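Protocol step 6 of 9: fold each sequence in the batch and record its structure tokens directly after the sequence line. For illustration, a two-sequence batch is reproduced in full.

Sequence one:
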Amino acid sequence: MKRLHKFILKSYFSPLVATFFVSLFILLMQFLWKYIDDLAGKGLEWTVVAELMLYMSAQLVPMALPLAILLSSIMTFGNLGENFELTAIKSAGVSLQRFMSPLIYLTVLICVATFFYSDYVIPYTNLKTNTLIYDVKNQRPELQIKEGVFYNGIENYSIKIAEKDYKTNLLKNIMVYDHHDNQENVNVTIADSGYMKMTADEKNLILTLYNGYSYEELKENKSGSRKNSRTYPHRRQNFEKQEIIFELTGFDFNRSDENLFKNHFRMLNLEQLNYAEDSLELQLENQARNFRKTIASSSYFKKEDILIKDQERKKKQIKKKNIRKQKIIDRNNADSTKIIITKPDDSPISEVPYNTDSIFYKQDNKIKESAINQALTFARAAKNNITNSKIQLNRKAELIRRHQIEWHRKFALSFACLVFFFIGAPFGAIIRKGGFGTPVVISVLFFILYYIISISGEKFAREAVMPPYIGMWLSSFILMPLGIFLTYKATTDSVILNTDTYLLFFKKLFKRFLKKSE
């Protein structure tokens, strides 16, 4: 290895490691900000939180690597340009591409390693992370009650609150339905305000209610079971303070079975994604074929079906009539020669074409109304069948697209490392600014642009606006030409970011405009 190659690798490696951990820390803080409501106040042991942070950090590695490569490449080449080391290297006859070649090989190696990491490690970390988050969310029920939504997590109870003060934990406009008797809403408690807290042993939940009343419908006597003689007995009780104790069972921090989540598309590698996608496509094809057969036989060709049934009915009536005549003749002419009446053959009765409109208008109003009502019933049933089948088919198609998105994500995140290198390295050589100032600002802007395009492309792919292979690679398709353009400009010593160049251009343009006007 040449001394120049060792120099560039040494200059690049330290910023890469530092920026990687900084990027990972920033992304991890974003995760904590997202799930802070689910983690805070749950009484979790530090080992559980540390385990969750470990798995989440491992999950964020493919996202942190492109940002680290972008930032470190801008810092490295910016420092070299700011110290005129790039100028000295170019003056020695070494081109920028030749100088960048060790870093290009290193970036390609990082891309390959990132791909295998995404294929083998990320599904495992996703499984562990999602299982832990699910267990954490189900540990403390008093923190899961949302405003304006009935909470049914406590057995035999349904609770609803209108407002919740997160600073004082004060609950307002509380409704509690008691379903212990397996009946409808016959026992309800309503209060103006209250507090909810867990006991020290975390086995019971105490709900303290203020200024309310409880209403309970009592059972009717057998003598009052008739509608006219019912008395509707009930009991109403006002209170200033009341405590309801809920016995909690199954709310301890227990580890869920990971097999419940392992078939999710984010927990699969490439081979498993291909197998699951083939299975889903086969299921979708079978569902679509069965739907076509069902809708064709029950809706589109219902008239033909009715005609066939009517012909079979007439055929059976003719057979029965001929057999009955034959028995009568045999009985009356027992001593005479028997008269044999040939039965009709088993060939289907030919369909005689007729005009349904003319038959309909010949009927009376009662038959017309009955026919219209029956047709409306058939049409509504067909519409409901089509709507339900459409929802099921769309869900299956969306699930297939989700698998395809995850398949392309493993390649797209790996390729993003190469894209960001070809943006950062020439950009640093052009701006010639090192440190954490300008490079950080530029890196954040490029990463935000990449993230917005990537999220938009993924959303378009989920909603079938564009195929998954376009939606997931959209950000790379847009930013890769920019990297090639910047590499070309850096190789030719372009001054595209020099303000004096643009000021001189506008001055010349202004002078030319003045000469034409004179």
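Sequence two, same batch, same settings:
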Amino acid sequence: MRLLPLFVIPLFILLTHATPAFADDAAEKRAEYIRDNYTKYEYQIEMRDGVKLFTSVYIPNDDSTPHPILFQRTPYRVAPYGVSKYKTRLGPSEAFEKEGFIFVFQDVRGKFMSEGEFVNMRPQDAYKRGKKATDDSTDTYDSIDWLVKNIDNNNGNVGMWGTSYPGYYTSVASINAHPALKAISPQAPIADWFFDDFHRNGAFVTPMAFIFFDTFDKQRDGEFGYWPKAMESVTPDGYQFFKELGPLSNVNKDHFHGERPFWNELTEHPNYDDYWQARNVLQHLNDTKPATLVVGGWFDTEDLYGPLATYQTMSDKSKNEHIQLVMGPWYHGQWNSPKGGKSLGEAEFGFDTSAWFQKNILLPFFQQHLKEEDNVNIATATMFETGANRWRKFDVWPPKNTKNKTLYLNKNQKFSDEKPSAGQSDYISDPNNPVPHSANISRGWDRPYMVEDQRFAARRPDVLVFETAPLENDLTIAGEIDLDLWFSTNKTAADVVVKLVDVFPGVDVNNNKVDQKTGNRHELVRWGVIRGRFRESMSDPKPFEANKPTKVGFELYDVLHTFKRGHKLQIQVQSSLFPFTDINPQNYVENIFDAKEEDFVKAFHTIYHNKQYPSAIHFNTLEK
């Protein structure tokens, strides 16, 4: 049988550093403009410990005025290499290139053309270890120091930006920041990998980790500057592939063979222990001096936690009001697409939200702080209101003008503000038939699943559904959603998955005619999961006591969404979301990465909604 390629380049990389697929003629014109108006240089910049980092610099040919520096550090390769070979895209948008910045790109320590050892989410502790100690923060400081002293015609002001892993490198630049670093924009930044990307409240995101670390975690074999070859697979059907994979211990046995160091480390640390805590960037973001614009997407399945937690941490701990947030209706990195912000799957947003952001927020932000331009007025929080399809501006996020609201689960699949009197709902969770995360066939996950119609899941017997009556007025939820569920299982382990769904009416509420476009669409607004062992502590897990009602509380990440008049608010409760999250064995094991085939068993779960055990969700509604 001929093997089909798994992925040539991991999805993270395609979303964070590759040129978007816009029209060939437009790309050629942009590339021609860059070559005509910029001159490229390459340097090996020496760090304080003697390690040299490969850095490419694009300097405007117009030397009539000094230019600020826009700097990006990446583990994803600053190719093409060679002073005669030019990137076809330098800035977040074409307008940046015409604005006349000096663009600098650097391979981080240990990646591609840079010397040294690469460490994933390296602990930022150099300031504790002495003058010659290094980490990602000190490498940034040393690089900026060299750039402002050695690059001709720079105005002494430096900005940084980056998406995903480069977003993390942008965040850590704020730690003991160089005085020349005036503005940063961490976009979808990794903040804590136990909650970003590879774990969701302890549930392991198998395809994301498997696909990413297949190539990213391979060690260099002497060839610098090249991506290692990805493994091969026999099917594009991720549900089939990861189901046939079996227990996660088979990843090394059948595929990685112990040759992915970080994969080995994460499997040795299933809990939020000292290993993960040391890699939590948030603990270092307590005095952010550069002006900061944090950017994220409501439908970013990779890094939604990161931007929200980064903004909240920086704004809570910084003395000055210079931390700003933008959240748009975007998948991972969609805000960087030249024509990509109008829709996602079947969800439509009314206009090109990415182009609006680039023109009205991102470019003015850097113009203000790097070129000291006046008349720039960017709100503290610029948030896209899904459901209503409009931008909203707030003085703080979450907004203050809200009211608390609680909705209770009731019998007969009801969901209302009435407290329940009696009842419970039971369902089966079968590891041999897990609930798919999407109705689509994909190797790992596809972007539109974050807004996908959920009727495919609601009609399964292992998914509980609770919904309100049709709303008489618009209802806008702003901020996080807190879940208090009373749960039991007849085994000792379980995951709990909750989805918040916007149920469209089958008819137009204004004319009572059948809505041919949206029908009775059940649009996913937000989902979340918790591995039940972590219900009390992420560091100190414990099994369930069989058949004992137990409170399981966790949060769904922030939303700003309006459920329109005539729509219903629905939640779905289930115990698998496969293959996006791994299958819980449902027999408690100390380390799930060591689980055996016999540990995986069918279980009977119960959600209680009665006077003694009232399951509920809590959120804030925005007052108009």
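Proceed to step 7 once all outputs are recorded. Observation for sequence two: Residues 353-370 form the longest helix (18 residues).
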